[in-house]
Specification:
single chain; Tetracycline Repressor, domain 2; 245 residues; mainly alpha
């Protein structure tokens, strides 16, 4: 593995918390751009400008402990992407969530792919649990933005399905050279959630109530109205639409 240029070696005394944070930051930079099996403790030590024994002193469990700690740190950062202020329309908040999420994906690149695709030699039940925790936390935050913090199973399933779609789209986006541009991908993913909500609202009372609440808070030229105007002509052309045969 080609390591980034080593940091300038400076052995000033750091507190335990500062040193641990320094090592985690160095590890995160490496794991962000390389699968964990390609990163060694020597790489981390070199990137942090310290000795290998010092890395072991803080992470006696070796690379696996360091990887899990770095993953936990990245997971905390990823969870924060979904915790935006409850200001503005729900779709504006969702757009901000996706902007922050896609920036995280962009900055962590190969590491994000390795994290979600699994199959790494560093993958364990603990690393899987960390990833699942992020997904659950993301679902909870999206439901809060939709104004339904304690939904019935069907609406919860809808949101978790959308989060799975966001993950899949993000991985494909990386494979496709980060095309289309992130803002285009963001708008498409917001449209997907609106479409899922609309389709489910047709047969689920709770989702219909959530959709009505969302629409009441939206700007007349916001994503909900734009998508409705774009889709309405297509629906009218379907056989049986508007009472026609």
């Amino acid at each position: 593995m080609t390591s980034p240029a080593p940091a300038t070696r400076a052995y000033r005394r750091l507190s335990v918390e500062e040193r641990r944070a320094q090592l985690l930051a160095a590890a995160l930079r490496l794991f962000a751009h390389h699968p964990p099996e390609e990163v060694s403790l020597d790489d981390v030590a070199e990137a942090a400008g310290v000795s290998r024994p010092l890395v072991y002193r803080y992470f006696p469990g070796g690379k696996q402990q360091l990887y899990e700690s770095a993953l936990r740190s990245a997971a905390d950062e990823l969870e924060e992407c979904f915790a935006v202020p409850s200001e503005g329309s729900p779709t504006a908040r969702l757009g901000l969530v996706l902007d922050r999420y896609l920036l995280f994906v962009d900055e962590h690149d190969a590491g994000f792919s390795a994290l979600l695709r699994g199959g790494s030699v560093a993958e364990t039940s603990r690393t899987t649990a960390i990833v699942d925790e992020v997904r659950r936390a993301a679902a909870e935050q999206i439901l809060v933005h939709l104004g339904v913090p304690e939904p019935e199973p069907r609406l919860r399933m809808l949101v978790r399905t959308w989060i799975a779609a966001v993950e899949a789209a993000s991985l494909i986006w990386l494979d496709e050279g980060k095309q289309p541009p992130a803002p285009t991908l963001r708008d498409w993913l917001v449209d997907q959630l609106i479409a899922l909500l609309t389709a489910t609202a047709a047969t689920d009372a709770e989702t219909r109530t959530a959709m009505a609440g969302l629409a009441s808070l939206e700007h007349p030229d916001g994503p909900v109205s734009r998508l409705a105007r774009a889709v309405s002509p297509l629906l009218r052309e379907l056989p049986g639409a508007c009472g026609t045969e």
